[in-house]
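Incident review: delayed structure delivery

Summary: a single-chain prediction request sat in the queue longer than the usual turnaround. Root cause was a stuck worker, restarted by the on-call engineer. No data loss occurred. The affected request and its eventual output are reproduced below so the record is complete for anyone auditing the incident later.

Affected input:
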Amino acid sequence: MHVLSFSRLRTCLFAVPVAVALLLTGFPPETSRLDGIGEAQAQQQQPRRRTLLELLKGNQQQQVAPQVKKAPKRATRRTTKTRKTSRRSNRTVKRTVTTSAPRAPAVAESETVEKLDSARTVLVVGDFIAGGLAQGLEEAFADVAGVRIVSRANGSSGFVRDDFYDWPASVGAIIEEVSPAVVVVMIGSNDRQAMRVGGRSEEVRTGAWDREYISRVNSFAAAVQATNTPLVWVGGPPFRFKSMSADILAFNEFYRDAATAVGGTFVDIWDGFVDEDGAFVASGSGVSGQTVRLRASDGINFTKDGKRKLAFYVERQIRQMLGDAASPLLTTLAPESFSTMRLPPLQPETDLVRINPIPLTDPELDGGAALLGDITRREREAGNNPLQAKSIRRKLVQDGVPPPPMPGRANDFTWPEDEPQAEPVEPS
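Output delivered after worker restart:
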């Protein structure tokens, strides 16, 4: 009898469980060649060979089929959240949450109505700031059928370069062509430059420059006055540059004096675009009361909300001047649309009732001469007839006459006759 070595004995003991496991689970099928299928695809269809360790311990780990992610839509946003199911297994579960993209709030726009054929025209002239003012006025009167805004602003114009555009000489022809009810002017933002005076160049805000500039401003106001058209002069706004704002403040005084001299109206808008300290602000309160962007990034131009606020100050003046024509409820400008004051018919001389004037010296305004509260007069009127005499209560309630004082009562202020009066004591 041969004695087995230790190594052979260990091999036999190790092979017995393997054979038993193969008998229980079965042998794996042979790999067959599949027609028309590639090698990689055939390997995916064949079952995976289990290792010896898996046969002994069993398949405790489960495989998770890979998930196919779909391409998200443009209108939605997908958020993936991952969480672990257990500490032993590394299996994770992914949940996809779909949320709709937020929509921008709708901006309310003023409804535009068709203008009447007989609508009153508001003419806006000036530089590029006046062009923005005209856009704001169009939005302000968009729902008013009786008011039409016409802009004849020239963006690069002013009073300094009259060789480029001469406003005092051109405004009369424009008014004759448009036939406006009101002329609104806003100018001066391009006038901070040298000016030719008497054949020589003068710098801004010198004595000769100011005199010539004031002369041109007054000529423009006189040209508008000659057409018998109401004038509304809008002052210049502040700018980001302090030197520019200082010059515009001086120009506004020139415009105020010129408009007042011809019976026009000057509208000051300066306080609407500065803070409490009088400094320039790019954002501020809009016409709706909300904080909005008023000025562009250059510190000169206006945004859409800034143009609307700019027109807010002028809108009030225009509505006051045009009256019922600026009402949004007006549908026609015919004479029957306006309210007329109806007076009562005149009375003939025979139907007049004349009343004599009442003298101010009469106490009761009835021709009597007695003072109010005269008890003796009322007693004389009643006489000695007891039927006509009034009781104390009726005198108090109807006539306001108090009852006569009783001796010893609180309202008895008479001095006793039998009691001697005290003599005054002379000082010693």
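Verification: The longest strand covers residues 76-84.
Action items: add queue-age alerting; document worker restart procedure.
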